[in-house]
Design goal:
alpha+beta, 9-stranded mixed beta sheet, 10 helices, 25% strand
Length: 515
């Protein structure tokens, strides 16, 4: 194994908007140890010398909040079993620079209740993980110290994810929304969760004074809150590095190759922008970007020094890009801001009765979008919070987009401010200080894809993608579940079975070249 601990002095870069475009390197640019060789059926193969290939037990593709959680929990599981830590995380840009870093960071939690679906289960797991990270930053333990030396203040800054369990409000602006919110409250209470129902405008205003009297009712979840998404991903990655995992930024995966011997083999060679890695397990956690899994005429089989041939593997992942846009005010004093996150109910009510999915559009539209194939708005959605530095941020739209469409929308901004102004009128008096977009990885059916592709003929390949707008809420918990299943060789929790990545209608499809 070539595993080694990542440096605690990793270069940090704040990226507000990323195109995600990185040039693919031709195979002859990868360095030494390569030559042409004959493949089967007359197809040329690329000879890869054994000393040009490093090895690792587990490779994670993607340095967002999901991938960083996988790396951390896999490293901890290996260490707890008394095994050498042998985990590599590959991120083509910087940890938290993609969809993770663009998100609002709102977190839903009902506390210690009985989850009735995968979302509640994952949210509860995530909160426990984030509480641990924040606890480490507030009272450092030697086992988790990241930096070398005695500068504990610097160590704390690296681990702070700005978690605040402030409580959150899900608000109702109509009688139909009131009924929905009250139904949610009764369901949560019946299953042991912490929740409070505010039945009228006066009780809502007493809880959140800056809200309008147009808010006729609200659901309070006291254990909900918010975090800084990019800091959270960095904290997870730092802790993974402290546990012995390699965190390798600016290293892009170009292709995945599988032994031609047959699907029963659980081994892969990953071609990256810096070389080759042989691994028994690979976790796909790259958001909505899967160029390395798509058919490409430039990808040729690899032939090892021992004569074994690895063919390109192509995986169709039913995850598409959906653009969200967030705007922020300048820093405001707490009395002009928000006590905790705000979630509206109008879009959720619409989606409970109507589907936004359209598979026939030129860019197929998944569930839970706010616009149709013609760009027409079909639902109004809003969520927001006040950040640690006092800025109030809100996001609204979910618009299907191409993989690298980060264009800002003036219409979207104006519409969002109008929507927010209905329940938070004073916010319209504040100038917009910043606007940014991010591309969220939406699955077609609205459920993440989480688990192994063994029943699709690719054992050892794991998927953790498609969390859409809930990556911060669900991603860390999902990463832990995948990591423990891989290292401990156990099944993922029963609550997550519905997320099986090769499910019949909306799952991944695997194609082996030359097989």
């Amino acid at each position: 194994s070539s595993s080694s601990s990542s440096s605690s002095t990793r270069t940090r870069m704040a990226i507000l908007c990323s195109s995600g475009a990185a040039g693919l390197l031709a195979i002859w640019e990868l360095g030494t140890g390569l030559a042409r060789a004959d493949g089967e059926g007359g197809r040329a193969a690329q000879l890869v010398e054994d000393d040009a290939v490093e090895t690792s037990e587990l490779v994670v593709i993607g340095g967002g909040i999901v991938g960083a959680s996988v790396a951390l929990h896999a490293a901890r599981c290996q260490r707890d079993q008394g095994r050498p830590v042998d985990v590599v995380l590959l991120e083509k840009q910087h940890v938290g620079s993609g969809a993770t870093g663009m998100s609002a960071g709102t977190i839903w939690s009902g506390g210690d209740g009985r989850p009735q679906n995968f979302a509640e289960y994952l949210c509860n797991e995530t909160v426990q993980i984030l509480k641990e990270i924040q606890g480490i930053s507030d009272g450092l333990s030697g086992r988790h110290r990241v930096a070398n030396g005695d500068d504990q203040e610097a160590e704390a800054a690296f681990l702070d994810c700005e978690l605040v369990q402030s409580g959150a409000l899900t608000i109702a602006l109509s009688e139909a929304e009131r009924q929905r919110v009250h139904g949610q409250y009764k369901s949560l209470i019946s299953r042991g969760y912490e929740a409070k129902y505010l039945p009228d405008a006066s009780s809502v205003k007493a809880y959140e004074p800056n809200l309008s009297t147009k808010v006729v009712a609200a659901l309070v979840t006291p254990k909900s809150g918010h975090c800084n998404p990019k800091l959270t991903a960095e904290a997870l990655a730092d802790l993974a590095g402290a546990s012995g995992a390699q965190i390798r930024e600016e290293e892009e995966v170009l292709g995945v190759f599988h032994p031609k011997a047959g699907p029963e083999a659980s081994r892969f060679i990953l071609q990256t922008s810096k070389g080759y890695i042989l691994t028994n397990n690979v976790v796909i956690a790259s958001g909505h970007q899967f160029d390395y899994l798509r058919s490409d005429a430039s990808k040729v089989p690899l032939k090892t020094s021992s004569g074994e041939i690895f063919s390109p593997v192509y995986v169709s992942v039913p995850v598409v890009g959906v653009k969200g846009q967030i705007w922020s005010t300048k820093p405001l004093p707490s009395e002009q801001g928000l006590r905790g996150p705000i979630f509206t109910s109008q879009a959720a009510l619409f989606w409970s009765k109507h589907s936004s999915r359209d598979d026939t559009a030129s860019l197929p539209i998944p569930e839970y979008c706010t616009h149709d194939r013609h760009g027409k708005r079909i639902a109004r959605h809003a969520y927001g919070r006040q950040t640690a530095d006092g800025r109030v941020i809100f996001g609204c739209d979910r618009v299907r987009c191409s993989d690298r469409d980060f264009e800002l929308s003036k219409e979207g901004l104006d519409s969002c401010r109008q929507t927010v102004g209905r329940f938070l009128p004073k916010i319209l008096d504040e100038e917009v200080e910043g606007v940014w977009t991010g591309i969220m990885p939406f699955s077609r059916d609205g459920k993440p894809l989480l688990g192994e592709l063994d029943d699709a003929g690719l054992p050892g390949a794991w998927v953790a993608v498609g969390f859409g707008p809930h990556g911060i809420m669900e991603g860390p918990g999902a990463g832990k579940a995948i990591a423990e299943a891989i290292v401990k060789k156990t099944k993922i929790p029963r609550a997550l079975n519905v997320l099986r990545p090769s499910r019949k209608h909306d799952g991944c499809r695997v194609h082996f070249e030359d097989r």
